[in-house]
Amino acid sequence: MSSLIAPAHLDELRQRYTSARQAVFAQVETYSTQQAQGAIGKTLEALAQIADDLLLALWQAHALHQTPLALLAVGGYGRRELQPHSDIDVLVLTPPGHAAHETQIAAFLRACWDVGMALAPSVRSVKQCLQAANDDITVQTAVLERRLLTGNARLYATLGHKFDAALQPLAFYQAKLNEMQERHARFDDTPYALEPNCKESPGGLRDLHTVAWVARAAGYGSTWQALQDHGLLTATERRDMRRHHAFLNLVRLHLHLCAGRDENRLLFDLQTQVAQRLGLESPKNTPLRPGENLMRRYYASAKAMTQLSQIALLTLAERLQASPGTHGKPKTQSENLPGLSSDEHFHVRNGLLAIQHKGLYQQHPHAILETFACFQQRQDVHGLAANTLRALYHARPFMDATWRSDAQHQQQFLQILQTPQRLADTLELMNQTSVLGRYLPTFGRIVGQMQHDLFHVYTVDQHILRVVRQVLQFFDPEHAHEHPLCARLAAGWEQPCLLVVAALFHDIAKGRNGDHSLLGERAVRRFARQHRLGREISSLLAFLVREHLSLSQVAQKQDLGDPAVIARFADRVGNEQQLTALYLLTVADIRGTSPKLWSAWKSHLLEELYRRTLDALGGQLPDPAALVQARSSGALIEMARRGPAPRGHLRLWQTLDAGYFLRHDAQAIAWHTQEIAPHAGQGKTVVRARPAPQGEGLEVLVYTPDQPALFARLCGFFAQAGFSILEARIHTSNDGYALDTFHITHPRLPGHHAGFIDTLTASLPPALQAGQALPRLRAARLSRRARSFPLPPKVHLQADADLKRWLLTVHASDRPGLLYAIARVLADHGINLELAKVSTMGERVEDSFLLSAESLAQSEARQQLHDDLLHKLAT
Predict the structure, then answer these.
(1) What per-residue string of b and e applies to 626-642 under the rule 16 or more CB within 10 Å gives b?
(2) Residue 198 and residue 179: Cα distance in Å, rounded?
């Protein structure tokens, strides 16, 4: 059905509507951040009024004002909160038998869309509205926020009377609570996602709406002032609610304007734009960017909203669950609530820990930490009651330096850390209520701090608490199957709390100028001194925080087959206790960084370094010549188990240097020998593959006459075929053959190993024919996150002790074909590659290469290689 209005008139209305909205947006641009936050409510009301005016004009133009129909605004539009690109929810309310007006209604709706309104209409009778509301909590919520725009006021009043009579506040509360819990679960129950949804995520606008909806359904009004008048909020809470509500609405408004659509996610590529529109700059004396500054403010508001909405909803629940005889007042302790147990400061009601009186924390400051000790120790407590949450929220000003330095409070905090029972949950609850950041101010400074390093997916505080939880799981028999070695090592560790303290401090100095490991070391030494932990414990904690990256860096970047590498690392860790603690912390740190970061390959590398270092600390570091002999003998034994040793195996081994035997274990040497020896020195290319013995993926063996740019050619082949290289070990025999092994993965590899092995063995040899041009790869696009927060590439070249080999490390944003690009530069410079280790962490790579070339002894050659690599990485 076309509109009943002339096209020219529709054009005029469209222009008028667009101009009015643009005028509002232009006015917003003139506000400072503080002004805009104060005026956001009026801005959204102005947009709603513009929609009201146009709807009334179109309603009359279609003669609907002469019908018994009513036009209602519902949902967010009903409460006069209309964001720039939000749907305009309307309800056309009809009396029974409205068929005579269907043509007019259809023409009206078409005209609304024609003039550019994002109308989301429904057409129902009163009976249909009541039935839909009964069947669907979303419809019930929308009708709850009804507002008459024009039309039949009596019909509107009838709907209101019947709807209110049918509404059951307690059932409505429970339905909205379930809805909120399901919504939170979709966002991992945290407001700290790196790309949060400012409307739907925990602590977002929808949580505030839920409080308002439940209050309105219960008859307490729908404004923050009304909730204060009914004793559901204090004056401070009402003021904070309004402030954070305004900020979140302002962020959402600018998100819509930046994206040009109904976009409520703070996407990476929008965060900087929104920050600039809000006038947010980088804080002084910090490396934070404007977008990161915005997100810290957002997380602070979301965290406060999580606390305040929880307080309000629990208080509403107490009112709604009260018996009729109490007239909406919650029962008190004297009413002998069933299941109540009490002591001097607390009692348990419905599984929630409640304080005995609201002045508890002001009168007894030690009761603050006692709250969490009680939560930790009582299995019948699963949360904090509204009055406890409220009292903690208002006690924050009392958690000052004097409170932190009190010896009783320090002993209470240590007691919490020394009790492994529910410790992770307790620390998370302390963080949610802001107590942890008040007790540890250094921790408070990293709450809500983003990490745009392209591999962390949590804010710093959330990462730290996940690492703590992971550490504690090592000591839990139920998780022993996940990390058998960690579980065995943890079983012999007497003080889990020391690892917890190290986990709390390992990243606590992130976001400050300087090395966060060294700054964190100072912070943990200060903590140990303040809590009188003693010199020995202080030294262990300082070592763990200072060195928390070292085991991972050595395992993933250096040659673990080199006894000198192991000896240096053994000297660095000093003793078995520190090595074991560092290994446990490292595994927990990686697993707490991102669900995608941990892999069986990383597990293998870390465990290999741990075991070799443990042997070195025990005086079992072998002489390289003895190790070569041991590997050779082990390979002979392994081959004997499989059958007769292949002819020519000794001739093959005589062409290989000690580095080959040091980098491969006996089983790998046996496999290589059995596959290569029959063809050694015959000018053939041999390609074999098998499922990787350690970790996921395939191990690929390539034996072929050496040629220029061979490594680059191999990398190009794997990149074109969609494989990712985790590690490459490169050897050149003294008779001119390359013996290279690659550990590779592919997204479709699981369950299809045989097919991939057949493809590799058939297609790789032809690709290695000398004289062919190196393959060209299509330019790869960076991810949104990498584009929004670019990681400047870094190249570092360092010589070993005798200046014969060089360790090249490359840091860059990950992209397909990156290793191939690096390999081509090395080939152009005539660099010999002995070992390549590829460490991919989310969308960031830290690749390491062991190089040898006489030209690298010249500083000019090193500088040219450095410059060429940076140029290639930047293009």
Answers:
(1) ebbeebbebbbebbeee
(2) 17
Q: Nearest Cα to 657, choosing from 847, 832, 862, 856?
A: 832
pLDDT tens, position by position, 832-875 = 888 888 776 656 777 888 888 888 888 899 899 999 999 888 87
Rounded CA separation 430/437 (Å): 8
* Closest by Cα among 31, 113, 114, 40 to 82: 40
- Cα–Cα distance measured from residue 84 to residue 78, given in angstroms and rounded to the nearest whole number: 15
Residue 208 C-alpha from the chain's centroid: 23
pLDDT digits (tens, 9 = 90+) for 551-604: 999 998 888 888 889 999 999 999 999 999 999 999 999 998 876 778 888 888
The predicted structure's pLDDT at residue 162: 97
Amino acid at 545: V
- Tokens representing 525? 């030494």
CA distance 322 to 534: 53
Residues near 773 by beta carbon (within 8 Å), at least 6 away in sequence = none
Backbone CA torsion sign across 357, 360, 362, 368: negative
- Res. 271 pLDDT band, cuts 50 70 90: very high
Nearest to 504 by CA among 471, 539, 468, 474: 468
Spatial CA neighbour of 144 closest among 87, 96, 76, 203? 76
Look at residues 198, 322, 216 and name the one whose alpha carbon lies nearest to residue 258. 198
SS3 279: coil
| Cα-based torsion angle of the residue sequence 853, 854, 858, 863 in order, rounded to the nearest 10 degrees | -10
Closest CA to 202 of 88, 313, 288: 313
Q: Which two tokens stand for residue 85?
A: 């690109």
**Cα(726)–Cα(250) distance, rounded to whole angstroms?**
45
Q: What type of residue sits at position 215? A: A
| Distance from C-alpha of 239 to C-alpha of 224, rounded to nearest angstrom | 8
- In the numeric block, the tokens 């350690």 are attached to 694
273 DSSP assignment: H
pLDDT at residue 695 in the model: 72
Q: 352: how many CB neighbours lie within 10 A of its CB?
A: 20
The whole-model pTM stands at 0.82
